[in-house]
Amino acid sequence: MPRLAARTGRAKPSAIMVIADKARQLKAEGKDVVNFSIGVPNFLPGDHVYQAVRDWMPHDSGGYGTNRGAPALLDAIVAHFRESGLDGYTRANVTVGIGAKQVLYNLCEALLDEGDGIAFATPYWTSYVDIAEILGAKIDLLPCPPEQNYKLTPAQLDRALARRPRVFLFNNPSNPTGMVYTRDEIAALAEVLAKHPDTWIITDDIYNRLVFDGIGYHNFVQFRPELRERTFIMDSLSKTYGMPGWRVGFVAGPEAGVKALVTLNSNHITCLPEITEAAALAALTGPQDIPQAKGVEFSKRRDEVVNALLKIPGVKCPRPQGAFYAFPDISVAFGKSHNGKPIENDIDFCKALLEDKFVATVPGSAFGEPRSLRISYTCPPDQLQKGLARIQSFFAELSDERVERVRAAGA
Q: Which of 167, 165, 121 is nearest to 143 (CA)?
């Protein structure tokens, strides 16, 4: 049998989906599982989106769309960026993809040759490492522990860019931490980026409409306009509009770079399905009441989650200000046990929590921070309360593993 390409050996299944699959299996077995693992918004788009699809169906051509995206959708995307405070883009500066992940993969293919460097902060979204490894890039991880609120500092960025990576990848608001950079923090990082003109910039901003506490959404190009010529800004319908399964991602960037992405589309996906484009156009141009209401609702759930976690002795949780995640440091549990199961690390913790309390979370090591775990808090309110109570109960039932070992040895 001929061998597979070497890059397939570098590809790994999503750690998030592994946990989600286990949770589904337990639920199928009749277990009362609370699923905090998968990052879906858990709401549906407004009726106008479905009506747009129904209206479109009699006019289906059955043919291909364009590699870049339908002109009306491109105009809506340009307007969407303008409403976010990002002016000056035209159809020539934007294109679409099958979700933000495919857009990111195309970007990395367009910008990185094998052996080139890519730098990004830890914790990171799992696919950042996976895509970079598949493409043979050299990864420069920039640790941002809970002690610095999971945020990158200008000094860290300056040191990283002095190593001249081909790409700097930045996520704001953050998955998995939910942290949001303030206006001043973005401005300070933009000053550093302006000093290092040889690095491409990708900003993954797919949670930009889910920002709490009046902190606002900001991007580097708003503070240093010259960065526009080497910055690609990613966005998506998935989180804002409750449309992850529709698979609509898009990006704004310099014209030459976006043209390269359109060429890659022509060889990868050809185009978005026309029915998906009809739904996307309706979402972007129609009423925005559901996304706005969900942002308010998620901020209240954030408060509930953080307050519950901070009542647990020894647990630390920097206060997230966006997206729909909390990322607590649960390392106080390490070296203890639950129902005789030793908890030596985050993976042990999440496994025992799922098996003993039927609460699914994702180990922080999947995101490059093994002291923590990720909680996605978009489930219904009764499920959220139940899951948080079970987590508190789990911690209360922990015993010191070393003491247990001594007792067992003396028995």
A: 121
User: What is the structure's pLDDT at 406?
Assistant: 46
Q: What is the largest CA-CA distance in the chain?
A: 79
Distance between CA atoms of residues 235 and 142, nearest Å? 23
Compute the distance between CA of residue 161 and CA of residue 168 in angstroms, rounded to an integer: 8
Place of tokens 């989600």: 20
**Which strand (E) or helix (H) includes residue 207?**
none
Report H helices in 195-327.
Answer: 238-241, 255-268, 274-285, 289-310
Domain parsing of the chain, residue ranges: 6-44+290-410, 47-285
CATH of region 47-285, choose from 3.40.640.10, 3.30.1360.70, 3.30.70.1140, 3.40.50.300: 3.40.640.10
**213 backbone φψ class: left, alpha, beta (φ>0; ψ -120 to 50):** left
pTM metric for this prediction:
0.94
C-alpha–C-alpha distance, residues 410 and 402, integer Å: 13
User: Which CATH superfamily, name and number, covers 6-44+290-410?
Assistant: Aspartate Aminotransferase, domain 1 (3.90.1150.10)
> Do residues 103 and 251 make contact, with C-beta atoms less than 8 angstroms apart?
yes
Q: What is the mean pLDDT of each run of 10 residues along the chain (411 residues)?
A: 82 72 85 90 96 95 93 98 96 98 97 97 96 96 96 98 98 98 98 98 97 97 97 97 97 98 96 96 97 95 98 97 98 96 95 95 95 96 97 96 53 51
Strand order in the sheet with 167-171: 94-97, 249-252, 231-236, 200-204, 167-171, 117-122, 138-143
Q: Show the 3-state SS of 40-67.
A: CCCCCCCHHHHHHHHHHHHHCCCCCCCC
